[in-house]
Known about the structure:
13 helices; 2 domains; globular; alpha/beta; 39% helix
Amino acid sequence: MRVEWRSVEEKWADHGFVPSDSQEWRRICLFGQGTYDAPHGRVLYAVVRALRPRRILEIGTGRGFSALAMALAQRDAGLHDGRILTIDVIAHGRLQHWHNPRRHVKDDPAAVGPISRKELLKDFGGLIDGRVEFETGSSLEKLASLPQGSMHFAFIDGDHSLVGVSRDWEYVRRILAPQGSVAFDDYDAGTDLGEILSSRILRNIRGCRRIGGILRSGRLPSWLSRDQHKYIRKVLFPGVHRVVERIYAEGSWNLEVFPYLGSLSIALLIPTAVSVC
């Protein structure tokens, strides 16, 4: 089965799995994206509420917003023994520029300048203490040490190259419990690299000499237009789309896609043996 939903509300609103517009949720969204509406967090919250995974693995912590959204979902689902392991190459205590004035509101907690994730998260101790574990390092070195079948759900949002996503998935496949599910961020990406590289819009991008650095870093500069972002994403993120399609082609997974902002989407793969409302 392959389904593309227009929103998580379309699938799960009647089940109460969509986060309410509470002060707590708004505070989490402001923390995560520097806005009061972080739509990809709504998808993750709803997925965790629906699947009720006790052990969650996240590859790619970022600020920690996804982990917060999933921790809130675990708590609201009554999973008091729920645990989340989140991995990132950026150390928890490392000073980092998280704020982008073109994308984030002025009330963004990260607007103060370089600040560590640990400092940003200090006001969420009641939600994450004892539930969320932050690990620093490459996903490969950390995943290799995890026991087989120890995770019930994984959210993969790390290295988006084909090699990187493929390697992450091979480790995650071993770590997932027999009926565990997996979600991939940025599934929206296209796969025809040659077409993109030869496109006029790419040749006309200001600062073409920096394209190599953009591709290596995986980060899109703010001076690109929306259309340019869309095209470059197809260069940066081909691995996610290809790996998800490869997994789905095995025939033992159901695939559900949740768009959350423009062309951005999260792909959710659930074993065919698992029934989810």
